[in-house]
Design brief:
By secondary structure, this protein is of the alpha/beta class. The protein folds into two domains: about 130 residues, no CATH class; about 230 residues, Alpha-Beta Complex (Spore Coat Polysaccharide Biosynthesis Protein SpsA, Chain A). Helix content is about 55%, strand content about 10%. The protein has 14 helices and eight strands. An eight-stranded mixed β-sheet has the order 3-2-1-4-7-6-8-5, with helices on both faces. The longest helix is centred in the C-terminal third of the chain and has 32 residues. It starts with a helix and ends in a 14-residue tail after the last helix.
Length: about 400
């Protein structure tokens, strides 16, 4: 029996340790000095900025105000007011945006809104389309940098997309901001050092217009951005990371909003890992698609809290099995994995997270991970598969 348990934990480590190694490689690479870029960009392409919005009256004007000064003659700014029951459409029109309204209670989700907006833009198509969420702010010059990077590379391009904790937020939101920085800044920056692609992140995404025909946008998938990036990569268009373009947003203040947002993101990510990762890995290897292999390896890295919980549980149980008379190898491998994960997180914090959280806050991370156990149990018992908007602070 003990021997059987030893083999079982060995099998678990085969699944858990590779994501830790990928995470370590990405963080280490991200810490290397930045490469100088001497290429001369071409002329600025004609741009359309598409903003899907579902009941975003409290935020839409600020978003549009961050976009409009960056547009030039011939550009378009389109808001898709999707199944809205508030005055999002009216506010967007008053702010100077072109607005179309969509109402379809059976087809809910960002993907359907994007498809609706693309079909509207087709009558006067741009060279590059940029998607910006209605709760995001674009830093100055980001439209230009995204558009040039996209048109010059001929690939989908993802801006650096960061989410911040509102002032006065508790420890869990501060830790969430750090985890988001690792996921959306550190890891893609590390992969980019090797010329490898990044995942699409939902806001600050730029596409060559003609390439949109390669994928099907109309979807209710709860992590449609992740799916889009993989679909483009499979079509020979691996997404490119553009860290010089910056998009920012804030986590919801309410516990309900945070819970809804976190559940959608993490259940969606885990669902893609279980449902798509094996076939993506096989496809990448059989077709010799290195970009798809890199994106699949990145996909296999679960949320930091889950990775910590899984490795910690395996570490404790493998040593228990050893003390009861089992094999030593699984316990040693689990120990190495724990040290490597802890070192990776500390390295990421030291290089990128000092301005986000204090070291004392980082020490709270294991307890934060434990508090997320019900979220992962919920994935097993009742996985979220439908898109649900995160509740804002005022609605």
């Amino acid at each position: 029996m003990i021997t059987l348990l030893g083999w079982l934990f060995s099998a678990l480590l085969v699944l858990i340790v590779p994501p830790v190694l990928v995470l370590f490689a990405q963080v280490l690479l991200a810490c290397l000095p930045a490469r100088s870029r001497s290429s001369t960009p071409g002329p600025r392409p004609r741009v359309a900025v598409l903003v899907p919005a579902h009941n975003e009256s409290s935020l839409i004007v600020a978003t549009l105000n961050s976009i409009q000064p960056q547009l030039v003659e011939g550009d378009r700014l389109l808001v898709v007011a999707d199944n809205c029951s508030d005055d999002t459409a009216a506010l967007a029109r008053a702010a100077g945006a072109e607005v179309v309204e969509r109402s379809n209670e059976q087809q809910r989700g960002k993907g359907y809104a994007l498809d609706f907006g693309v079909r509207h833009l087709a009558s006067d198509a741009p060279e590059v389309m940029i998607i910006v969420d209605a709760d995001s702010l674009l830093s100055e010059g980001s439209i230009l940098r995204l558009a040039l990077c996209c048109i010059d590379s001929g690939r989908p391009t993802q801006a650096l997309y960061l989410m911040h904790a509102p002032a006065g937020s508790g420890l869990k939101v501060q830790l969430a901001e750090f985890a988001w920085c690792v996921k959306n800044r550190v890891r893609p920056q590390g992969w980019a050092r090797l010329g490898l692609p990044c995942s699409l992140m939902g806001s600050g995404m730029a596409f060559v217009w003609k390439d949109l025909a390669l994928i099907d946008l109309a979807s209710g998938h709860i992590v449609e951005d992740l799916k889009m990036g993989l679909d483009f990569c499979r079509s020979g268009k691996p997404p490119l990371f553009c860290r010089d373009a910056l998009v920012t947003s804030y986590f919801p203040r309410s516990d309900e909003g945070l819970s809804t947002q976190r559940k959608r993101w993490e259940h969606g990510h885990l669902g893609v890992i279980l449902g798509d990762a094996p076939k993506l890995m096989i496809e990448a290897i059989t077709r010799g698609n290195g970009s798809l292999l890199a994106m699949t390896l990145d996909l296999l890295v679960p949320p930091l809290a889950l990775l910590t919980l899984a490795l910690g549980a395996t570490f404790a149980l493998s040593w228990l099995v050893f003390l009861l008379g089992g094999a030593l190898a699984p316990a040693l491998i689990a120990s190495i994995g724990m040290v490597l994960l802890a070192g990776t997180v500390l390295l990421a914090w030291s290089r990128f997270g000092r301005e986000i959280i204090a070291f004392s806050t980082l020490m709270y991370a294991p307890f934060y991970a434990l508090k997320k156990i019900p979220l992962y149990i919920g994935f097993v018992l009742k996985r979220q598969v439908e898109w649900v908007r995160s509740k804002r602070d005022d609605n």
